[in-house]
């Protein structure tokens, strides 16, 4: 396919050649027919002629707008998914036994953008925007009720319950869309009860839906 500006250049060249041809014919015939016929004005279109007006500035502006519309903005990708793979281990307190109990994960399924800190089982976004977050925590070999929550900077946002005393396993899960800022700290914590019987197969996942544009 020929670039747009080639078509503009060819059209303008045709306009120039047409103008020179009309001017040349007018000059040659004016001396012989000046007394009988008036001189032709090259700026006036005669009946049956096609006049093409070239607007190079407008054409360039239209082409620039078209190129801008075809250039998508850079998209940064952030996504993670982690799992509790081992059937042993206990959740740990985040502050040496005095803070909330953090649900830990030992297997990384996905970590595009390297925003999930596996050493602390914490998601720390590097881009501000809207994120989709979801957790599924299984309670195994434990009949005691347990409440877990997704927290942002220590503040409970989504809560899941596994409080049925029937035969385990039972699932506490929740999730949704939330706006996060850079360096927010997102993790899964135990609000009530315990996971002393294990939480194997539990998962915590999230991804960037769209980033902020200012």
Secondary structure blueprint with pairings:
Blueprint: H1 4-33, H2 56-70, E1 79-83, E2 92-93, E3 101-102, E4 107-112, E5 116-117, E6 122-123, E7 129-139, E8 146-152, E9 155-162, E10 170-180, E11 186-192, E12 203-211
Antiparallel strand pairs: 1-4, 1-12, 2-3, 3-11, 5-6, 7-10, 7-12, 8-9, 8-11
Question: Care to describe what's here?
Answer:
With about 210 residues, the chain is of the alpha+beta class. It folds into 2 domains: about 5-70, no CATH class; about 80-210, Sandwich (Jelly Rolls). The chain contains 2 helices and 12 strands, in the order ααββββββββββββ. The protein has helices at about 5-35, 55-70, and strands at about 80-85, 90-95, 100, 105-110, 115, 120-125, 130-140, 145-150, 155-160, 170-180, 185-190, 205-210. The strands form 3 sheets. The protein has a 5-stranded antiparallel beta sheet with strand order 4-1-12-7-10, with no helix packed on it. The protein has a 5-stranded antiparallel beta sheet with strand order 2-3-11-8-9, with no helix packed on it. A two-stranded antiparallel ribbon has the order 5-6. The longest helix has 30 residues, at about 5-35. It is rod-shaped, with a radius of gyration of 36 Å. The two termini are about 35 Å apart. The model has no long low-confidence stretch (mean pLDDT about 75).
